[in-house]
Write a structure and sequence with these properties.
single chain; alpha+beta; Thiol Ester Dehydrase, Chain A; six-stranded antiparallel beta sheet; elongated
Length: 161
């Protein structure tokens, strides 16, 4: 591992990771203004924008857009999963088992469930990462299963001319 200069977090490469490795994020508080602001810009549906309409909807109250929860999750993952080269997606499965509500405080726990070195590209592999987003009561509000590109350390012999 090497240290990321900006955060002090150890950057991990393909050869550093194993199935079962876990990463936990900081907490992220969510309020009505954030929910409505995101909805106005990206998902302008009544159950994200208006408490009265939301109360009469399937959700029974104001709920954050699932895409808002996904965006928060991404931010928290970028901060807490120190993959070399960043979190480069190669596909995802996404589900929202319950709505995210105003006043929720979210955090993400990510676990590596598979590591597959590339046979055709020896400098990289694909890591499967299950990232569960929880509210303050420990209830899951999102599950994101990502296939992510992860690089190996560059070998000294590869750098020579």
């Amino acid at each position: 591992m090497s240290e990321n200069q900006s955060s002090g977090v150890k950057t991990v490469y393909l050869e550093d990771v194993a199935v079962g490795d876990r990463y936990s994020s900081r907490e992220y508080p969510l309020d009505v203004a954030q929910i409505k602001g995101f909805a106005r810009d990206f998902d302008p549906q009544p159950f994200h924008l208006d408490e009265l309409a939301a109360g009469e909807s399937f959700f029974g109250g104001l709920a954050a857009s699932g895409w808002h929860t996904a965006a928060i999750t991404m931010r928290l993952m970028v901060e807490s999963v120190p993959f070399a080269g960043g979190l480069i997606g190669a596909g995802v499965e996404l589900s929202w088992p319950r709505p995210t509500r105003p006043g929720d405080t979210l955090h993400v726990v990510s676990e590596i469930t598979a590591v597959a070195p590339s046979k055709s590209r020896p400098d990289r592999g694909i890591v499967t990462l299950q990232s569960d987003t929880f509210n303050q009561r420990g209830e899951p509000v999102q599950r994101l299963v990502s296939r992510l590109l992860l690089f190996r350390r560059q070998r000294v012999s590869e750098n020579r001319c």
